């Protein structure tokens, strides 16, 4: 048999991102837009193209969201042309990495595909439609709102949250609106488009299963190939592992028999450096490359980065219920995490640089895990690569959230296809520690009244207990899987059980005040949170109400939670008085958000190792809104982020109740033992020492201990004017026996000194009296300014230096004005 090789062997990838236009083709489109052919950016969305053309108002501003909902109710057409000539390759495929969502793709009038899943990659054979010369490529998008409505009728109603039946379409659920997100259902070519030209055979996918033990590592690379018609030649696959400095540490090759389309390459590394999460060691990465050759000529290649580590999420019965803990390389990790939502309502605006900025903020807050929530996306390669590099563990939900889902066709096949696509894409990342079946759907079935509404219809349990774990076991066998969040560890047990597995704690925000976090000791908290407004500069940038009040039209529009403002008020007034001034209201609500979340995490850390983690809802926002986020929709840190920095620190000292007594709870989540003296003092607000005791403490690394506070130290004379201070080295915790609103706080007696330094200013604040929660809200005078800390309580005679990073020319008067230099004293004294 004689094998004939094509003129060109090496594959080529040609991006097709230029020359696109978009126009409406149906729906309630304004006349001036219906007649327009608009330049389009690819990757991009209709919303962002219309914004760039100045044809719609910014949906983020005021109440403009309601002015552009027609976009999701309309049909659109994207079109471009590209030149092509025969190049000697056997095959030519158009590869769409992401189409959002209901699309028909035609090339020169020939239909190549109809798609209904945003979360898949589509490879479309184009040889039958390509022509020598100019080629017309058209992608028509049908209204996602209309499609979801019709699909809900076709497959039968399934209960869901919010307005649209997002559970009837495989599209990011939050794109249809959420209790923190705007209703901006989009259409567009949201990921790269490529003309892939290849010959003979190509690498379809590589699944590197990485294992390690005894200092050695093994990579078992499962390689899938595709062959062009009539190409049955024998091939060679060679895989190489290199260290970060480019040194080759392992190479292996296998012959691929004639006609075969699968192969496995095994590589052994005698001595590997392990990948560790933040705070446990370096996140060491290696490069893995796979080369395909035919008759000793290069045909295709594939590469990624990997890390050697073991990770298991343990759910094990014990005396306290069922554990939930992340164990990396044999070491249990106390999870200091946050939930991650899409970082922009228009996903194509989320750049690698923007992801890096959010991860900078996560690291600033001492986080070691981000949970990618199931109402958004399988996160980008950029997100995962950056988490790999930084040692930030990731938890990826499969994309089912707050709804019931049909298990029949046509959804079932779409679900399996998207899972295969994305598990294969993401499994090489060492940061990924857990696949999770859904967000709140099992809990919702049990407690939200879905069962009677379903009338016996399927609702997704078969996905979570059967299909998804089977696919994970097949494709990514070294990764842990949980059926849902929350998850108790047993299908026969209610999903959201405090003593078992992971829990979501929302009763406190919704109905009960935050001190009740102390009523229980959960094993792992995967969701909890408290709302607060966006930063002041973000509010002023996005809302033009005059006057601006907590309930003015724009402010209410940017509050998506049901009864959100009432819950903010109800959650504040037991702790701080409700101000009438809007700026004071903003400070009070921001502070209360930070206090509520810090209160919960301090409690849970004091109960380690019974409790092994908290994942706060949420790190980020997708637009400027009052929400549970620590970073607002314009990327500015709220006081909550600084509170997380404090309570997620390696070493933490708090004072906690244990029955009728108090203890100093000391957490040492560092890699070194902590030997220090615990100094316990009861003091008056004027700084007088009323009682004291000292205790020697020795804590091993990664442990938590407690020191009883002697009765004489805890015997308050006047609770409204006294506090307990527990000091361990440079760390300390404070205990105030009454709420701030009931205390005898006086106006903070502050003196300040401002010095210009490289990149900004040092602001020294000294207090002659007790000053609680000293904070600089520097974004009020420079929206780009950032301060290095917030919410520092000063005892009489103490000072703190704040570093303000700003390129603006700021005066001492601006930096220390009463609206910028804030304390909780202001709120209490002004009210009193």
From TrEMBL:
Residues 746-821 form the Beta-mannosidase Ig-fold domain. Residues 20-191 form the Beta-mannosidase-like galactose-binding domain. It catalyses: Hydrolysis of terminal, non-reducing beta-D-mannose residues in beta-D-mannosides. It is an enzyme of class 3 (hydrolase). It holds the Pfam family Glyco_hydro_2. Keywords: Glycoprotein, Glycosidase, Hydrolase. Residues 212-309 form the Glycoside hydrolase family 2 immunoglobulin-like beta-sandwich domain. Belongs to the glycosyl hydrolase 2 family. This is beta-mannosidase.
């Amino acid at each position: 048999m004689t094998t004939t090789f094509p003129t060109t062997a090496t594959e080529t990838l040609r991006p097709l991102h230029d020359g696109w236009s978009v126009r409406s083709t149906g729906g309630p489109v304004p006349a001036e837009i219906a007649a327009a052919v608009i330049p389009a950016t690819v990757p991009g969305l209709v919303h962002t193209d219309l914004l760039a053309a100045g044809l719609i108002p910014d949906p983020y501003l005021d109440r403009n969201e309601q002015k552009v909902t027609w976009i999701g109710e309309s049909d659109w057409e994207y079109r471009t042309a590209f030149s092509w000539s025969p190049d000697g390759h056997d095959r030519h495929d158009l590869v769409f990495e992401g189409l959002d969502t209901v699309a028909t793709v035609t090339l020169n009038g020939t239909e190549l595909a109809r798609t209904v899943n945003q979360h898949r990659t589509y490879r479309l054979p184009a040889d039958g439609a390509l022509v020598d010369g100019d080629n017309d490529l058209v992608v028509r998008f049908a209204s996602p709102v209309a499609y979801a409505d019709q699909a809900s009728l076709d497959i039968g109603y399934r209960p869901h949250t919010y307005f649209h039946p997002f559970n009837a379409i495989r599209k990011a659920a939050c794109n249809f609106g959420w209790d923190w997100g705007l209703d901006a259902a989009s259409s567009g070519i949201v990921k790269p488009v490529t003309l892939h030209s290849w010959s003979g055979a190509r690498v379809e996918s590589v699944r590197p299963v990485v294992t390690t033990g005894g200092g050695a590592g093994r990579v078992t690379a499962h390689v899938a190939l595709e062959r062009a018609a009539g190409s049955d030649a024998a091939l060679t696959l060679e895989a190489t592992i290199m260290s970060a400095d480019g040194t080759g540490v392992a190479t292996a090759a296998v012959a691929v028999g004639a006609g075969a389309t699968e192969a496995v390459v095994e590589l052994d590394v005698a001595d590997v450096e392990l990948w560790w999460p933040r705070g446990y060691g370096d996140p060491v990465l290696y490069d893995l490359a796979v080369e395909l050759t035919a008759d000793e000529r290069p045909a295709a290649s594939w590469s990624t980065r990997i890390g050697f580590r073991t990770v298991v999420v343990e759910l094990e019965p014990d005396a306290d219920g069922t554990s939930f803990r992340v164990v990396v390389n044999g070491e249990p990790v106390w999870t200091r995490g946050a939930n991650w939502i899409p970082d922009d309502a228009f996903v194509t605006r989320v750049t690698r640089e923007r992801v890096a900025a959010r991860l900078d903020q996560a690291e600033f807050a001492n986080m070691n895990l981000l949970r990618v929530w199931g109402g958004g996306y399988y996160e980008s390669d950029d997100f995962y690569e950056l988490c790999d590099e930084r040692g930030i563990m990731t938890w990826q939900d499969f994309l089912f959230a707050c709804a019931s889902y049909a298990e029949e066709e046509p959804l079932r096949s779409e679900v399996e296809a998207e899972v295969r696509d994305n598990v294969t894409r993401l499994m090489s990342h060492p940061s990924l520690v857990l696949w999770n079946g859904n967000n709140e759907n099992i809990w919702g079935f049990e407690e939200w009244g879905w069962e009677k509404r379903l009338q016996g219809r399927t609702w997704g349990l078969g996905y979570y207990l059967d299909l998804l774990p089977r696919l994970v076991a097949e494709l990514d066998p070294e990764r842990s899987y949980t059926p849902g969040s929350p998850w108790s560890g047993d299908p026969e047990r209610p999903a959201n059980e405090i003593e078992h597995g992971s829990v979501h704690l929302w009763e406190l925000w919704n109905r009960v005040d935050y001190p009740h976090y102390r009523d229980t000791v959960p094993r792992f908290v995967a969701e909890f949170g408290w709302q607060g407004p966006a930063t002041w500069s973000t509010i002023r940038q996005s809302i033009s109400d005059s006057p601006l009040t907590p309930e003015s039209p724009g402010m209410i529009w940017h509050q998506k939670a049901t009864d959100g403002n009432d819950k903010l008020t109800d959650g504040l007034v037991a702790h701080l008085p409700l101000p009438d001034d809007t700026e004071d209201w903003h400070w009070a609500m921001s502070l209360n958000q930070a206090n509520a979340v810090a209160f919960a995490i301090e409690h849970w850390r004091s109960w380690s190792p019974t409790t092994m983690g908290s994942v706060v809802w949420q790190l980020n926002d997708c637009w400027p809104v009052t929400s549970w986020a620590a970073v607002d929709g314009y990327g500015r840190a709220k006081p909550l982020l600084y509170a997380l920095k404090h309570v997620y620190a390696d070493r933490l000292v708090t004072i906690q109740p244990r029955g009728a007594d108090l203890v100093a709870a000391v957490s040492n989540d560092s890699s070194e033992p902590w030997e220090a003296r615990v100094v316990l003092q009861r003091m008056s607000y004027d700084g007088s020492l009323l009682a004291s005791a000292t205790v020697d403490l020795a804590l091993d690394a990664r442990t938590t201990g407690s020191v009883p506070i002697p009765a004489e130290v805890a015997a308050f004379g006047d609770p409204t004017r006294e506090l307990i201070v527990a000091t361990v080295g440079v760390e300390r915790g404070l205990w105030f026996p009454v709420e701030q609103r009931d205390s005898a706080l006086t106006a903070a007696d502050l003196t300040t000194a401002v010095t210009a330094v490289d990149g900004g200013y040092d602001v020294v604040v000294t207090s002659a009296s007790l000053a609680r929660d000293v904070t600089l809200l520097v974004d009020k005078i420079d929206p780009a300014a950032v301060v290095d800390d917030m919410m520092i309580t000063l005892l009489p005679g103490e000072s703190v230096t704040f570093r303000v990073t700003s390129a603006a020319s700021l005066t001492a008067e601006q930096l220390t004005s009463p609206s910028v230099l804030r304390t909780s004293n202001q709120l209490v004294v002004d009210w009193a």
